[in-house]
Amino acid sequence: VMATTAVSSITTPRLLLRPFARSDTAAIASHCGDLRVARMCRVVPHPYGIAEAEFFVDQVCSRADGRIYAIVLGGHVVGCVGLESISGESATLGYWLGAETWGLGVATEAAGALIDHAFGGLLDGLERIESGYWSENVGSAKVQSKLGFSLLGRGPLLCLARGCELEQQYTRLTRLEWHRRRVAPPPPMSAFELLASFPQGLPLGGLKAVCAPAADRAAFEGDETAIEAVWRARRASQPSLFNGAKFRFVGVEGGTGVEGGGEGG
Predict the structure, then answer these.
(1) Is the separation of the CB atoms in 173 and 128 below 8 Å?
(2) Can you spell out the DSSP letters for 207-250?
(3) 217 CB contacts (<8 Å, ≥6 apart)?
(4) Peptide bond into 239 cis (omega under 30)
(5) Percent of the chain scored above 90 by pLDDT?
(6) Lowest mean pLDDT among 2-11, 20-29, 161-170
(7) Rounded distance, CA 126 to CA 213, Å?
(8) DSSP 58
(9) DSSP secondary-structure letter at 123?
(10) Torsions phi, psi of 7, nearest 5?
(11) Structure confidence at residue 183 (pLDDT)
C-alpha cells in the first residue's frame, strides 16, 4: 500500500473539499435518494435513505484505502469526490453531484483539485488514476475529457440502482499526461474556420460543414472529406476545447457568397 499524506481539506476558487461528517447525512440522502443521481452511479442503491447515508459516512469514508471528500459549494454539501482502491501505483476516481449543480463545472473543478493533490504529493508513488462512466452519461464523459483521461475500453457492469448491467467506459489518467497538461496546457481552439457549401437537397438549407485548424486545412487543401474527418476526430477526442471556440464560415449557394460567424460549443 502506498504512503499517504493526511489532507483535511482542499479549497478551490468556488469549492471546499472536506471529509464527510455525520451531520451531512441528510444532504447525502437527499442527493443520492434522487434516482437521477443514483442511476448514474455504480454502487448507490435505490431507494436511498438516512440509514444508507450513515453507513456511507461511518464505513465507506473511513476505509484505509480511500480518500473521500464532501464537495461544499456556498456552504452546502452538493456532492462527493474521492479516490478509492488506493494500492501500489494506482487509485480509482469516483464522484457524484446533486442534480441541481449539474452543468456548472463543479465536478470538473472538484475532481481536478483532488487529482492535482494526489499526483502532487497526497499519494506518494501514484502513477495512474483509473475511472469510468456509463456510456449514456454524457456529462461525466465531458468531465473526464477535460481532465485528460483517455479511454481504455468498455464492457458490462452492474448498476445497483437500476438492478441491471450497463455499458461502462473505462478510463485512465497517467501522471505523465497530468504533468504534460500542467506544463503545456492545450491552447484554446479559437482560430478555426468553418467552410460550408450549400448543395441542393440537403437538410437545414443544404448546409455541409467542414472545419479544421489552419494547419490541417493546408495539409488537406481541396479535400473536404479529409478536413471533415480531422474536425470530427478532434471534436470527439477533445470536446472540452471546443467550448467557446470562435469560428468563421464561408458558403456558396448558387454562386453567391454567404458569410457569417458565431460561437462553437
Answers:
(1) yes
(2) -EEEEE-HHHHHHTTT-HHHHHHHHHHHHHH-GGGGTT-EEEEE
(3) 193, 195, 227
(4) no
(5) 62
(6) 2-11
(7) 36
(8) I
(9) B
(10) -130, 115
(11) 77
